[in-house]
Design goal:
The complex is a heterodimer. Chain A is mainly α. Chain A has a single domain, classed as MetI-like (MetI-like fold), CATH 1.10.3720. Helices cover 80% and strands 0% of the residues of chain A. Chain A is flat, with a radius of gyration of 21 Å. The model of chain A has no long low-confidence stretch (mean pLDDT 92). By secondary structure, chain B is of the alpha/beta class. Chain B has a domain at 99-165: ABC transporter ATPase  like domain (ABC transporter ATPase like fold). In chain B, strands 8-9-10-3-11-12 form a six-stranded mixed beta sheet, with helices on both faces. The termini of chain B are far apart. The model of chain B has no long low-confidence stretch (mean pLDDT 94). The chains are: A mainly alpha, B alpha/beta.
Chain lengths: 225, 257
């Protein structure tokens, strides 16, 4: 009979809390850099200038198809050999997940932008707007509304993928959990608690996204006409 | 009278398809010119070349005597900034309105003034109200386009274009997507503009509008101007077989007088 004993876990719970806050930090920073970078890649990919759109397509496809763990190891172990940078686990994590998620956000942006009727571009153009003004004032405000569900989905995916940073010894929730499990000889309790923590975090986030989706559905945006 | 728009030897092709095959057209200040023609005749393309929604393949367009674009190596080059500045002086209204659904009626009419012309919010707002009153929709200022009828949407689109203080207005089949019942209110607004002296270039299938409002009617066929003249002359006494067929097609199933 297995004996459950959470005492050891809870007496060192602050270790897990540090991990949780580091996980959130990596996720938040990856979003902070990844979303604008994704927009840049999307605009490049939609560009009629061939070299620009091909470069963007290559970057996007490359980061969408290679495993995130390989990317992380590449930035952490390989890049410092190529160029003279001091790579810390934290920087490697931010760089990897910013670029990796930007590739996915780029496709979400592209889908959103392309879903907007071309008449909207023409309406903006006809009053003298340039490309940037049209995108900023007319197209994106409508596109972003449609992107929100996919955006939320991807952010949750990102949060889960950040567990990989524990492999390069960044003290995220997963890393702290490994640490604690070895220290206390209580992997059962530690990993159970950690699973519940991830579950609660993501559950709250996805409930939030469902609520947002419902509100958007109610406000019933009818575009074009 | 002064020349507002001058088009000479305009050609436009999409790949192998030659849509415009040499158009010469001058629009005088205060004139209303109606372009007629069956679909595929190139009338919408011609209109869209005036404000460079389409770039002509050959030929030139001038506004107030200023040539648009610069010639380089036998071909015209157009910069985005030049075309954007040009479009602020040429208003355009579309078949499908193209109002911005995420903005109120008033914001739609203010948008170009604030973002492009850099007018202050308060100036843009008062100008927007003036133009909305002009098209009879001041009471809808705070509504979203989705709550308006087709005719109302089209009048807002007209107000949006007018708020830029254009030298000329282009109308591209603006009543074609409307319920027949709503066509009248839009045509009435356009007639009022013509009466107020606005220079207008109108693509339409409304022969009655052409007859009563136009100073001049052009009939396009196969990328060329086939007939041109006063509406009474062109519409009542057509010179070509093609024009007669076109007019017959429009008067099938007419109500008896």
């Amino acid at each position: 009979m297995v004996e459950w004993n959470f005492l050891a876990v809870f007496s060192d719970f602050d270790l897990l809390m540090i991990g949780l806050s580091n996980t959130l930090k990596v996720t938040a920073l990856a979003l902070l850099f990844g979303v604008p970078l994704g927009l840049v890649f999307a605009v490049m990919r939609l560009s009629t200038t061939r070299p620009l759109s091909m470069a963007a397509a290559f970057i996007i496809e490359f980061f969408r198809t290679t495993p995130p763990l390989v990317q992380l190891f590449w930035f952490f172990f390989a890049l410092p050999i190529l160029i003279d940078v001091r790579m810390t686990p934290f920087i490697a994590a931010i760089v990897t997940f910013s670029i990796q998620s930007s590739a996915f956000f780029a496709e979400i942006f592209r889908g959103g932008i392309q879903s907007i009727d071309k008449g909207q571009w023409e309406g903006a153009k006809a009053i003298g707007m340039n490309y940037r003004q049209s995108l900023q004032r007319v197209i994106l405000p409508q596109a972003v509304k449609r992107m929100i569900p996919a955006f939320m989905e991807r952010s949750i995916e990102l949060l889960k993928t950040t567990t990989l940073v524990s492999t390069v010894a960044y003290a995220d929730l997963m890393f702290q959990a490994n640490d604690l499990a070895q220290k206390t000889f209580r992997p059962l309790e530690v990993y159970t608690v950690v699973a519940v923590m991830y579950f609660l975090l993501i559950f709250v986030f996805s409930q939030l996204s469902i609520a947002v989706e419902r509100r958007l559905a109610q406000s019933g945006e009818s575009t074009v006409r | 009278m002064s020349e507002i728009v001058q088009i000479s030897d305009l050609h436009k092709s999409f790949g192998d398809l030659n849509v415009l095959k040499g158009i010469d057209l001058t629009v005088q200040s205060g004139e209303t010119v109606v372009l007629l023609g069956s679909s595929g005749s190139g009338k919408s393309t011609l209109l869209r070349c005036v404000n460079f929604m389409e770039e002509p393949t050959q030929g030139s367009v001038s506004l107030h005597g200023e040539l648009i674009g610069t010639e380089a190596g036998g071909k015209m080059q157009y910069r985005e900034s030049e075309l954007c500045a040009l479009r602020t002086r040429i208003g355009m209204v579309f078949q499908h309105f193209n109002l911005f659904p995420h903005m109120t009626v008033e914001q739609n009419v203010m948008e170009g003034q604030v973002t492009v012309l850099k007018r202050s919010k308060s100036e843009a707002q008062s100008k927007a109200m003036t133009q909305l009153e002009r098209v009879g929709l001041a009471d809808k200022a705070s509504e979203y386009p989705a709550r308006l009828s087709g005719g109302q949407k089209q009048r807002v689109a007209i107000a949006r274009a007018l708020a830029m203080d254009p030298d000329v207005m282009l109308f591209d089949e603006v009543t074609s997507a409307l319920d027949p019942e709503l066509v009248g209110e839009v045509l009435k607004t356009m007639r009022q503009l013509a009466d107020e002296g606005m220079t207008m270039l109108v693509v339409t299938h409304e022969l009655g509008f052409a007859y009563h409002v136009a100073n001049r009617v052009l009939f396009l066929h196969d990328g060329k101007i086939l007939e041109e003249g006063k509406p009474q002359q062109v519409l009542k006494n057509p010179q070509t077989q093609r024009m007669r067929e076109f007019l017959d097609g429009h008067s099938l199933f007419k109500l008896p007088d």
